[in-house]
Design goal:
Layout: H1 16-22, H2 25-39, E1 73-77, E2 80-81, E3 85-87, E4 93-94, H3 96-107, E5 114-118, H4 124-129, E6 135-141, H5 144-149, E7 151-152, E8 161-166, H6 177-181, E9 185-189, H7 193-201, E10 206-210, H8 213-222, E11 227-231, H9 232-239, E12 248-255, H10 258-261, E13 265-269, H11 274-289, H12 292-300
Parallel strand pairs: 1-5, 1-6, 9-10, 9-11
Antiparallel strand pairs: 2-3, 3-4, 6-13, 7-13, 8-11, 8-12
Length: 327
């Protein structure tokens, strides 16, 4: 598979949507509208079970240390990263990360000890360090710097890179993107992780560098580009919005790359929290196995960024990883 992320320098945040939405007011408003609509809907089922990414080996046994001596588990988050963490129409903290934190509390059987507190992103680390919270679940990406100073969970979300094309191009059922993109114009945000990935993995494609993801959308709509190569999560929301003019679909499947795009989002704890991290990893695995993770995923991502081919379609058996991982 192939993960997309545009990494906001210095923030440590997995910013596939942040770079697309936080710095683009119109898309932030659209993203909030979508997130609020999803939060108001108990279930929006489009993705199939096979579409939802897995993070754990089903045959691996993870120890779960007792948390009986833990007086409190306060999850810290922010409100600026829809659909992961945001304020709903009633001003309550909501989102994929928030529902996942609540599910972890249930799985760990410590609901009475659990709290969720929202604050500005820039205050999260100091609050954790000051022991006014035990874990941050707000969109951190794994980095060497983070691992050197913090305990982190296993990854629980990844951002797939995707191709999208106009439906009239007849490319929706394509499997191998290498010959399909040869000599074709592919809109990609300049100097992004996707641009580097496109150059390395699809060298025969003709890159059309653009300044913003909105420019990439416009290039595809106008015919100035044959494809977009970008974050699958952001593309899924765009494809499902009126802004796309119902023009386009995903092509082929998702691409994930630790080399270009990192390992995904993690929960962050203090370095003295090894037992808590082990317990959270064990609980994350249980949520994956019993279907709870899938339920939360489909609640917030009805247009599944991991589906193969057109939005909402089921994946081809065994498809996902890039054939060669040479970088």
């Amino acid at each position: 598979m192939t993960v997309h992320t545009l990494l906001r320098s210095g923030s440590g945040r997995q910013s596939a949507l942040l770079d697309i939405m936080t710095h683009r007011p119109s898309l932030l408003i659209a993203g909030l509208a979508i997130a609020l609509a999803l939060a108001a809907t108990p279930y929006v089922r489009v993705a199939s079970a096979q579409d939802v990414p897995r993070f754990f080996d089903p045959n691996e046994r993870l120890a779960r240390p007792s948390l009986a001596g833990l007086p409190r588990l306060r999850f810290l988050t922010s409100l600026d990263f829809p659909p992961f963490n945001f304020a709903d129409a009633q001003g309550r903290v909501a989102g994929f990360n928030v529902d996942l934190a609540r599910a972890l509390c249930v799985e760990l059987d410590i609901v009475d000890k659990c709290e969720i507190q929202a604050m500005p992103w820039d205050e999260l680390d100091a609050t954790l360090e000051g022991k006014r919270g035990e874990a941050i679940i707000a969109g951190h990406r794994v980095t060497a710097e983070l691992r050197a100073t913090r305990e982190v969970s296993a990854p629980y979300f990844r951002f797939p890179a995707r191709f999208a094309a106009r439906r009239d191009a007849g490319a929706a059922d394509a499997d191998d993107m290498t010959p399909l993109t040869a000599g074709k114009k592919v809109a990609v945000v300049a100097q992004s992780a996707h641009a580097a990935m496109l150059a390395a993995w699809f060298p025969k494609a003709t890159a059309v560098p653009v300044d913003t993801i909105e420019d990439a959308h416009a290039a595809l709509l106008s015919g100035d580009a044959d494809f977009i190569f970008a974050d699958g999560v952001g593309l899924a929301f765009w494809l499902g919005s009126t802004a796309s003019q119902d023009c386009c679909d995903f092509v082929s499947g998702p691409f994930l790359s630790e080399h270009f795009l990192g390992r995904g989002m993690v929960i962050v704890m203090r370095q003295d929290s090894a037992s808590l991290a082990e317990a959270i990893d064990s609980a994350l695995k249980s949520l994956e196995e019993d279907g709870t993770y899938r339920e939360i995923f489909t609640r917030y991502f009805p247009l599944n960024p991991f589906s193969d081919g057109p939005v909402g379609s089921a994946p081809a058996e065994g498809k996902a990883e890039r054939p060669d991982e040479t970088g």
